[in-house]
């Protein structure tokens, strides 16, 4: 079986999306000509689309059922999500609604849509970034690696102090390294691609070197290596958390949006009984 | 200072195949009609026929019902019936499959579950690891007989109701007086036994392991002809018919080709042992140690077709050998040069070398036959393209259908080329969501059967998951045949019921993809052996979710198209996936 390339798949899916949106516009125009309310139609399309989109999460739990592959579901999820966004813009006539509930619904929808777009962008970009930065790691193993690095540095310093009675390393450890190795650090700087924190620490290491004898200098070289490793751990941790974290916005916002949408639907039908 | 430990360098025959091969027994077997005709003067003193029989053979005493080989087992020895009668099961009755599970070629999870059973799985999967339900005492040990003493003791499977098997199954009789041998094709081609054979009466057999068979075949022309004729009759035609290059030839021509085609073996049958020991990063040493099948610069004396195993195609680049490609079953070598010779009439030396990676069995079709029968009738699209001799090397060598050099080296060095369902992960797309691991766990009673970790080159990771190898060395030595190739799907499957937890397969797997686990009952308590009170172990690995409605769960669960189960010898699929 020939595998479709990602580029070809993207082109095909975007083409289908554009055709679907164009056909919807024609349909709405025709519906409008018959003096029916297009908002009711777009509203129902949105409800059905959003409920269909939530099935993707459910499908993950039933991986053993013949329900098409998760990859097909994700593609469907992405493009149906984009289609829903287009329909939503038509439904809201491209502007912020006036009522409180509708404004809340509008904001929730935008939050879901934008977090979704953000999610898909980072799922494509982050693995590449991680790979370029250093060894890719598993999220679950990072605390273990971090603890190992911290223990290695502590032991190295204690051993060197026993051997050389250096005070520089002890002071350096308590001032710069203890906190650095104790937890994940500099997440924001990693996110924005800044290396200032690392350069600063490496500079401090360079400055400490002049106070050390040969064994101390050798220990410092090893410490420098561990600092670089820890920096990669922090980098990987930050981006792995980001890859998981966006779902903590996308999924709860989706359920909140569905609840508000149901209230919105009830109000529309409650107050609009008899409308065409 | 401590003194160095001194030992004699380990030699081939330090451990004989069987302990009972006394000189009297060697005399006894050497008198067998098939061996009596062998000219022992052609053998060297060190590799004499007597020594081969003494160290690479053993005598097996079978009781009525004892199973000699089973369908699905991996062949590595040949049997000479000395007395008694054997039966080959050509069709296994379904009721026998149920009553004699030792003969079954299906795994315990061979049947696909229904839709409701699949849904039930989501709620009723045990939370305790490796739970097994045992409804009765005993188990597979009911079908195993202990033979031999001490270190020589082994479990031999047997059929409990021979009369019923004879009554219900289709069988073929082999009497010792037929002077025949059994299991030679599987042993010679390192392939899966296609039928089960059992002792119909108390019988005595001579079992010769592959190494011995190879040496006898090499030294004695008559024996070689006998074995090769058997191979030609039973397997070669089938293999040649698989080749697109020969598909347009009629049977008569094929038989002419078969008569003159040579069967050759290179390398080490037990390559997995040396592979596990060797440092694969030391590429030059690894390549140097590989037996050369055909060397670049020499003239091609025939078309080489890979029968079994793997071959490395390389060329000499300045100070080292550069790997260009790998060949597996039905891969061909030398066609380009032979075609050029046929077109121009000029002698064309081989441009590349072929080496055995591990071991390699090849068929050599002599040049004259290729030029007389194959090339003239070959459709133009199957003929190799004419090479522009004026083109610079770097203009012609890297065609788009070639794997990236680093990946070729990576796949060969890690022997991933052995995989028919290798799990590759594109780390540029994998977001560590673990959906694959979860899906695998759900499919296997909450026990994931792979580890999402493994050697990585660039953005390609070979995960620790059973690759369902083309050459499944894990099958060698399984005493109960619990690990076998599923005849329908070709997947390597462990029958949990017949697995006795000896760990032979796990130790043999060069990729560490088989795990021994201690099993528990539904309450979570470890299950113990009645006699020794030790915990019962089972071998576990990826079974490609063969009892699921859709499989494999890992690949289907990956939303980002990062994971694939791929046949490493399907070059097109591999390139398509890599260049997606």
Summarize the structure.
Chain A is an all-alpha fold. Chain A is built from ten helices and no strands.
Q: What's the arrangement of secondary structure elements?
A:
The complex is a heterodimer of chains A (276) and B (580).
Chain A: H1 6-33, H2 38-61, H3 70-91, H4 100-133, H5 142-164, H6 168-182, H7 187-191, H8 196-209, H9 214-245, H10 247-271
Helix pairs in contact in A: 1-3, 2-3, 2-10, 3-4, 4-9, 4-10, 5-6, 5-9, 6-8, 6-9, 8-9
Chain B: H1 23-30, H2 33-36, H3 49-56, E1 57-62, E2 67-69, E3 77-83, E4 85-91, H4 94-99, H5 115-124, E5 144-147, E6 154-157, H6 162-168, E7 170-175, H7 184-189, E8 196-199, E9 203-209, H8 210-219, H9 221-242, H10 251-260, E10 262-267, H11 271-277, H12 283-289, E11 292-294, E12 302-317, E13 320-327, E14 332-333, H13 335-344, E15 353-366, H14 367-374, H15 393-396, H16 405-413, E16 422-426, H17 435-443, E17 456-457, E18 460-462, E19 483-485, E20 492-494, H18 504-508, E21 515-518, E22 537-540, H19 553-557, E23 563-566, H20 571-578
Helix pairs in contact in B: 3-8, 8-9, 9-10
């Amino acid at each position: 079986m020939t595998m479709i390339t990602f580029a070809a798949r993207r082109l095909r899916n975007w083409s289908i999306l554009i055709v679907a949106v164009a056909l919807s516009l024609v349909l709405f125009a025709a519906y409008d000509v018959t003096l029916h309310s297009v908002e009711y139609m777009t509203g129902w399309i949105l409800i059905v689309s959003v409920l269909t989109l939530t099935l993707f999460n459910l499908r993950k739990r039933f991986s053993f059922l013949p329900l098409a592959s998760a990859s097909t579901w994700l593609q469907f999820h992405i493009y149906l999500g984009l289609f829903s966004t287009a329909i939503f813009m038509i439904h809201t006539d491209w502007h912020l609604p006036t009522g409180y509930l509708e404004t809340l619904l509008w904001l929730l929808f935008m939050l879901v849509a934008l977090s979704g777009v953000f999610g898909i962008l980072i799922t494509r970009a982050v693995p590449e970034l991680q790979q370029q930065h250093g060894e890719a790691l598993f999220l679950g193993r990072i605390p273990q690696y971090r603890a190992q690095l911290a223990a290695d540095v502590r032991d190295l310093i204690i051993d060197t102090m026993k051997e050389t009675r250096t005070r520089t390393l002890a002071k350096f450890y308590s001032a710069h390294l203890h906190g650095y190795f104790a937890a994940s650090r500099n997440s924001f700087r990693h996110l924005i691609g800044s290396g200032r924190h690392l350069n600063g620490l490496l500079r401090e290491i360079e400055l400490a070197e002049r106070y050390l004898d040969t064994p101390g200098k050798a220990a410092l070289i090893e410490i420098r290596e561990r600092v670089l490793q820890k920096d990669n751990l922090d980098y990987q941790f930050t981006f792995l958390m980001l890859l998981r974290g966006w779902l903590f916005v996308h999924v709860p916002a989706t359920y909140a949006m569905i609840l508000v949408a149901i209230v919105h639907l009830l109000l529309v039908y409650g107050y609009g009984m008899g409308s065409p | 200072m401590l003194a160095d430990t001194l030992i004699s360098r380990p030699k081939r025959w330090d451990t004989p195949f069987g302990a009972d091969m006394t000189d009297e027994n060697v005399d006894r077997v050497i008198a067998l009609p098939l061996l009596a005709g062998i000219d022992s003067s052609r053998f060297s003193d060190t590799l004499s026929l007597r020594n081969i029989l003494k160290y690479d053979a053993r005598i097996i005493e079978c009781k009525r019902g004892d199973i000699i080989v089973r369908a699905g087992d991996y062949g590595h020895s040949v049997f000479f019936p000395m007395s008694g009668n054997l039966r080959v099961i050509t069709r296994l009755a379904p009721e026998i499959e149920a009553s004699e599970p030792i003969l079954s070629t299906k795994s315990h999870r061979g049947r696909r579950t229904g839709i409701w059973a699949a849904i039930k799985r989501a709620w009723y999967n045990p939370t305790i690891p490796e739970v097994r339900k045992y409804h009765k005492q005993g188990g597979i040990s009911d079908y195993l007989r202990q033979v031999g003493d001490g270190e020589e003791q082994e479990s031999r499977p047997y059929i409990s109701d021979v009369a019923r098997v004879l009554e219900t199954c289709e069988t073929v009789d082999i009497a010792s007086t037929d002077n025949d041998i059994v299991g030679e094709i599987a042993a010679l081609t390192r392939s899966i036994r296609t039928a089960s054979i059992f002792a119909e009466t108390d019988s005595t057999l001579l079992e010769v392991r592959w190494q011995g068979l190879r040496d006898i075949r090499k030294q004695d022309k008559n024996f070689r002809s006998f074995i090769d004729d058997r191979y030609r009759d039973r397997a070669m035609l089938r293999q040649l018919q698989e080749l697109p290059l020969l598909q347009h030839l009629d049977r008569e021509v094929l038989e002419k080709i078969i008569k003159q085609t040579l069967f050759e073996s290179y390398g080490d049958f037990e390559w997995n042992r040396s592979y596990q020991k060797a440092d694969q990063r030391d590429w030059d040493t690894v390549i140097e140690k590989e037996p050369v099948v055909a060397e670049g610069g020499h003239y091609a004396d025939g078309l080489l077709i890979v029968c079994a195993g793997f071959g490395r195609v390389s060329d000499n680049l300045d100070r080292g050998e550069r790997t260009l490609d790998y060949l597996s079953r039905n891969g061909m070598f030398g066609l380009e040069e032979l075609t050029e010779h046929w077109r121009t009439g000029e002698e064309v030396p081989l441009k590349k070398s072929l080496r055995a990676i591990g071991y390699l069995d090849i068929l050599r079709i002599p040049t004259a036959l290729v030029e007389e029968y194959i090339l003239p009738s070959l459709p133009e699209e199957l003929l190799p393209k004419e090479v522009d001799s004026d083109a610079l090397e770097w203009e012609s060598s890297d065609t788009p259908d070639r794997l990236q050099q680093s990946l070729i080296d990576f796949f060969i060095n890690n022997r991933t080329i052995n995989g028919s369902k290798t799990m590759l992960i594109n780390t540029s797309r994998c977001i560590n969501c673990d959906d694959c691991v979860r899906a695998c766990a759900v499919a296997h009673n909450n026990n994931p059967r792979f580890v999402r970790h493994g050697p990585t080159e660039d953005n390609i990771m070979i995960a620790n998951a059973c690759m369902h190898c083309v050459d499944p060395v894990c099958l060698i030595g399984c005493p109960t045949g619990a690990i076998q190739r599923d005849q329908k799907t070709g997947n390597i499957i462990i029958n949990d019921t017949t697995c006795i937890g000896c760990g032979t397969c796990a130790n043999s797997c060069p990729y560490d993809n088989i795990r021994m686990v201690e099993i528990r009952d539904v309450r979570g308590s470890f299950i113990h052996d009645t006699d020794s009170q030790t915990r019962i172990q089972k071998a576990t690995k990826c079974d490609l979710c063969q009892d699921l409605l859709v499989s494999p769960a890992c690949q289907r669960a990956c939303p980002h198209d990062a994971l694939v189960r791929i046949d490493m010898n399907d070059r097109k699929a591999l390139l398509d996936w890599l260049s997606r």
